[in-house]
Write a structure and sequence with these properties.
single chain, elongated, three-stranded antiparallel sheet, two-stranded antiparallel ribbon
Length: 181
């Protein structure tokens, strides 16, 4: 495991416990990570630059370098996307991600993220889910284990169908330079 990855996970960053073990050096380029999470490359880039979800395998190191995202990074990206799709603001999502990182929750594959539309809750047992529902507020749930399996199968599918070697951003730059010429 790289020193950067070790220090990130030793600090208790999100999704380090209860997740399947993957080869530490395995990294996915931004275009693959974005496709696996169901987001645009532009969103991926923005979230990395604003430190919402940073790549843990290799960060950007200047012009021309490529970020490499680990499995857990892609899982977080997909969870953020799911929360956005339900109408939660990016500001609330940032707060939720920060709280999850600080909580250091064990066995995250067995947890569910819940929301009443204004806040995000972490539920680790049936009692918590029932308590939230009994308050009379409408809630939705995102089972982290299910999202984890979706990311796994998407990455397997993307590995068997190699993507165009040029990512979305490189393709745009190439098209732009051809127009200028």
């Amino acid at each position: 495991m790289s020193e950067t990855m070790r220090s990130r996970y030793d600090l208790g960053l999100l999704f380090t416990d209860g997740m399947p073990e993957y080869e530490d050096g395995t990294g996915y380029r931004g275009a693959i990570a974005a496709r696996a999470a169901g987001i645009s490359y532009r969103q991926l880039d923005y979230w990395a630059r604003t430190q919402l979800v940073e790549p843990t395998v290799r960060g950007a190191a200047g012009s021309g370098s490529q970020r490499l995202y680990g499995f857990r990074d892609i899982l977080v990206l997909k969870l953020v996307k799911r929360l956005l799709d339900t109408g939660i603001s990016l500001q609330q999502i940032r707060a939720a991600v920060t709280q999850l990182r600080e909580a250091g929750v064990e066995d995250l594959a067995q947890t569910t993220l819940m929301s009443d539309g204004a806040s995000v809750y972490l539920c680790t047992s049936d009692d918590e889910v029932i308590d939230l529902v009994n308050r009379g507020q409408g809630v939705f749930g995102i089972a982290v284990g299910k999202v984890l399996r979706e990311v796994e199968s998407t990455l397997v599918e993307l590995d068997t169908h190699p993507a165009d070697p040029m990512d979305e951003l490189a393709a745009r730059r190439g098209a732009k330079s051809r127009k200028v010429s």
